[in-house]
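Worked example

This section walks through a single chain of length 319. The input is the sequence exactly as stored; nothing has been trimmed or padded.
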Amino acid sequence: MSAASHAPAITGILVPHMVPLDAKGRIDEEELFRYVQWLVDRGVHGLYPNGSTGEFLRFTVEERRKIVQIVCKAAAGRVPVVAGAAEGTAAETIRACEHCLEAGARAVAVVAPYYYRLSAESVEAYFREIGAHSPIDVTLYHIPMLASPIEIPVVRRLAEEFPRIIGIKDSSGDISHMQRLITAVRPVRPGFSFLTGWDPALTSMLLVGCSGATVATSGIMPEMTRAVFDMAMAGDVKGAMRLQPRIIELFDMAMQGADFPEGYRVAASCRGFRMGPSRQPASTKQLADRAALAERLTTLLQTLGMNRARPSDAVVPVA
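Given that input, the structure is written out below as tokens.
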């Protein structure tokens, strides 16, 4: 069994950010670097590249590796990087884990097997293979609407037996499930990290014991999601609850205005980043709808006092 690292537990707001693309659909490396530095400058606790919001399935293996390299370089050790490392097989995922370690990531996020709907026994066997052979700490990624679910007893056994498996991101949005998960796992693994991936329940999840969050709105409103985390940790329930509706408003607007995660590409553009066109083809009507969405998002962000990033913000060459 691989020995676990003694690095601090993963906590706080980790951003599952999108990747800027140029006019030809290639990774805009300089803009990605600028975007990541801007996020860190605004107080996020970590970065979460190659997740669902980061469209990991729309990039090649080589591109995913390049994204992790750029993000780790931009983070420059100021915040941890938890990089998505999910591939089609356990063996390929372990190779991705090796690359993330080489690039400087703190840990990886591994989603349960997707496309094929697997039994709990098969999901556990998959993570046992990764837990036994990954050279880097692993966070599980539970997103049952898109991948095989990771049952609570499975998480408990994995947490108990594999030091390399250090946390879980749960995007189910189910608060009762999260409470049951924390109750089952924390007694056998006190330092295990519980991260919510569901923006509308951010405050509630933090108040029931989550260690932090990886929510898409943090890539658009890093200032506000950080403020909610700080307030929740300080016991300022009223303050956190006062901001939560604004997070829900942005979430609903981005999710309903375009197919996920395209609304967040539009929203990041509204904060002043050159995000470029999506790799997913769009109809003329969809493009018009996104233009209208941009107007609504701009108005919302201006109302909240969220200014556009200046061209000079965090500009550092990636070469």
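What to look for: The domain at 12-234 is CATH 3.20.20.70 (TIM Barrel).
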